[in-house]
Amino acid sequence: MSDRGLVVSDRATLGEGVGLGAHVVVYGETVLGDGCAIGDHVVLGKPTLRGPRAGQDAGPLVLGARVSVGTGAVVFAGSRLADLVTVGDQAYVRERVSIGEGSLIGRGSVVDNDVTVGARVSVQTNVYLTAFSSVEDDVFLGPGATTANDDTMGRHPPDQALVGATLRRACRVGAGAVLVPGVQVGEEAFVAAGAVVTRDVAPRAKVRGVPARVWGEVTDDELLERWR
Question: For residues 82 and 99, what is the distance between their CA atoms, to the nearest angstrom?
Answer without folding.
Answer: 6
